[in-house]
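Obj: model holo form, ligand = S-adenosyl-L-homocysteine.
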Amino acid sequence: MPVGQHAAARPPQHLADLGPAERRAEAERLGHQRFRADQLSRHYFARLTDDPAAMTDVPAAARGALAEALLPRLLTAERELSCDGGQTRKTLWRATDGSYVESVLMRYPGRVTMCVSSQAGCGMACPFCATGQAGLTRNLSAAEIVAQVVAGARALAAGEVPGGPGRVSNVVFMGMGEPLANYSRVLSAVRRITDPVPDGLGVSRRAVTISTVGLVPAIGRLAAEGLPVRLAVSLHAPDDELRDELVPVNKRWKIAEVLDAAWAYAAASGRRVSVEYAMIRDVNDQAWRAEALARLLASHPVHVNLIPLNPTPGSRWTASDPGVAAEFTQRLERRGIPVTMRDTRGREIDGACGQLAAASRPS
Ligand code: SAH
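Output (holo C-alpha cells):
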C-alpha cells in the first residue's frame, strides 16, 4: 500500500531523541538507576548495538525493559540495493507506522558519506524531484534520522562494505524531505550524530551538511545555533521567474532573500555555503543563466555543485548536454567561482540525487 494511505503515527521514543541528561532522567523515571542510560548509550553509539542480549553489563532482569523503553527498533530494512562494486548502498526502510524512507551510503577513497532522509516524503513539491512528487507523509523523529547513520556505521564496522572496516565520516541531509521543515528533530539528530562517543556518534560537525530549498527564517535560526555544519542551498535558477517553477517555495522567499540568509549563515558559521544547481537541458543551462548565476555569487563564500538532472519517471525534463554543462562550468570558473560537477553515484539503483521515492514503491 502506498505510504500516503497509512495514517502517519508518531514513532516510539528512543534514547537518540534525548540528550544525555534527558536519557538519565528517563532511566530514573522508568525506575532504573541513572547510569543505565549511559550504558545503553555506549551500546548504541559506540558498539552500535540495540540487542539486549549483548548488554551483559546491565542486569539481565532489567535489560529487556530498558531496551524496550529506550532502544525500540524504529526502522526495518525492507530492501538493500548496491552498485559501484558494493561501495554505494541504498536501503529502503520501513518505519513503525509503515512509512518508507531511504538512505544511501557512499564510500569513496578516504571517506564515507551517509545521505539521510529527514522526512517521509516532502512537502516542497519541486517538480523535478521524485520525493517532491509524493507529498509529505510525516516528519521523522531525531532517532529515526540517527538510526540511518547507525545502520551505515554498523555495516562499515562489520566489514560489510568493500574496502575493509570503516566509519561514517560525513553525513548529508540530502535524502528525502526538507530538513529545515523538520527543524527541531533535525537539530537534535545533528547533536546525536556529532556528540562525542558515547553520548553520540562522534562525526565531525564540519562533516555534516544540511541542504535546504531556502526556508529563510530557519536558515537564520540555524545560524544562531553556532554549529559549524555546512549549509547547502538548492538554487537551481538565478532568476525568480524560473525558480518559482523549479522550487515552488521561491514564491514565498525570493532568491535575494535566500542568498542574503545564506551569506549571513556563512559569516556566522565560518563555512562556505554550497549552492546546488541541477543542470536541466534547455531549462536552466543557458549561457545567460550561467552569467546571471556568476553575478549573484561572485565575491561570496560559496562553492557551486552542479548536478546533472536525474530524470524521474515521466519527467518532461532531462539532463543538460555534457558539452553545455561543461561550458556552464567554465563560465562560472572564469568568474572565479569554485565549482564541481557532482557525480551521479547510485544512479543504477535509483539512489542518486532526487531519485529517492520510497513512497511510490509498493510495499
Ligand atoms: N529538501 C532538501 C534536500 C533534499 S534533496 C533540498 O531541496 O535541498 C538534495 C538535492 O538533490 C537538492 O539540491 C535537490 O534539489 C536535488 N535534486 C532533487 N531532485 C533531483 C533530480 N531529479 N536530479 C538532480 N538533483 C535533484
